Amino acid sequence: MLGLITVYKVPNYGTKLQAYAMQEMLKKYDETEVINFKVSSDHRFSAVTGKIKLKLQRMKKKKSENPAFLKYKNERVSAVNQFDKSFYNFSACMKGTRQVRKYMKGCSAVICGSDQLWAPINVDADYFTLTIVPSGIRRISFAASFGISEIPDNYRRKYRRFLNKMDYIAVREKSGKKIVESVSDKKAEVTLDPTLMLSSEQWNALADKSRISHSDYIFCYFLGNNKNHRLFAKELAARENKKIITIPHCEQYNESDVDFADIEITNAMPQDFLNLIRGANYVCTDSFHGTVFST
C-alpha cells in the first residue's frame, strides 16, 4: 500500500488533476490511497491551521462582497466535489496524528507531491513535510515545489530537519533542487509535473467522461484579471469567426470576465475542463496547467 499526501481540497482544475495524476501514476506500482486527513482536531497543527484560517477568512470577507463570485464559486465547488467522490481512492477519514501514524504503519511508503507543498507556511506542521510518518516507513517526494527561490534564514533549520529525514527527493523546479542541496545533506532530482507523466490516452479517457461538448470555439481559461488577454481573445474570435467559451472568475472575482464570453460555464468538473481544451480550435490561457493540457 502506498499512501499519497497531496493537495486536492481546493476548486482549482490544475490542483485536482495533478492529484489525480499522482494517484494514477502510483497505481502502476502498488495499491494507492489518498490520505484523507483532517488536521484541525490536533493541537500540533494549531499554529499553521490558525494562519491558514486567518488567510481564508480574509479572502472570504473580500469575496463575499461580490454575490456574483460566490454564485460561481459555489457551483464550481459543488461540481469538483463530485469529481473527488468519483475519481479519488481515499483512505478512511482520520483525525489527529495518532490515527494517521497508525494508518501509515501499514504503508510501504508515503509519498507527497506535487504542487507547492513545501512553501514556508506548510513547514510549521508535520503533514506535507512527512515528519508525521513513523520511522521505518519510506518517505518520498515527487515534483514537490517550494514556491520560492530561497529559504528565509529563520526557516533554514526547519527545512534541514525534515529534508534530511527523506529517503528520496524529487522536486519540480531546478530552484528546488538547489534549495534541497544547499539546506540539507540530501540530493534531489528534478522531475516533471505529474500531469505530464500520464499519456494522452489516459487523459482522453477522462475527458470522454465529460458532460459538456461544443464545437467551433475558443476556450479561455484565465486565472488573472488581465484585460489585454481578453482583448486578444476577442480579436482572435472576430478574425476566426469563433465563439468564446470561458470558465469565469476562477480564483477571484475578475471584472474582465464580465460580459466577456459568448458562453460561461460555471459548473465545470475537471473532466469537462479537459474536454473543453480538447475540443477547442484555440485555447487562450495564463495558467500553467491550462498550457500543459493544451500542449
Structural features, described:
With 295 residues, the protein is an alpha/beta fold. Helix content is 40%, strand content 15%. It has ten helices and twelve strands. It has helices spanning 13-26, 46-63, 67-87, 96-104, 156-163, 174-183, 200-207, 227-240, 270-278, 288-294; strands at residues 2-5, 32-34, 37-38, 94-95, 109-112, 138-144, 168-171, 189-190, 217-221, 243-246, 263-264, 282-285. It has a six-stranded parallel β-sheet with strand order 2-1-5-6-7-8. The protein has a four-stranded parallel β-sheet with strand order 11-10-9-12, with helices on both faces. Strands 3-4 form a two-stranded parallel ribbon. α7 packs across α9 (270-278). The chain is globular and about 60 Å long.
Average residue pLDDT: 90
The tally of beta strands, per DSSP, is: 12
Q: Structural class of the helices, strands and pairings?
A: alpha/beta
- Which overall shape is indicated by the principal axes computed on the Cα atoms? globular
Radius of gyration: 20 Å
Distance between the first and last residues' Cα? 33 Å
Biggest β-sheet description: 6 strands, parallel
Query: What string, H for helix and E for strand, traces the elements in order?
Result: EHEEHHEHEEHEHEHEHEEHEH
Strand content: 5-15%
Helix fraction by DSSP (H/I, runs of at least 4): 40-55%
Strand order of the largest sheet: 2-1-5-6-7-8
Which consecutive residue ranges, at least 5 long each, have pLDDT under 50? 41-51
Count, helices: 10
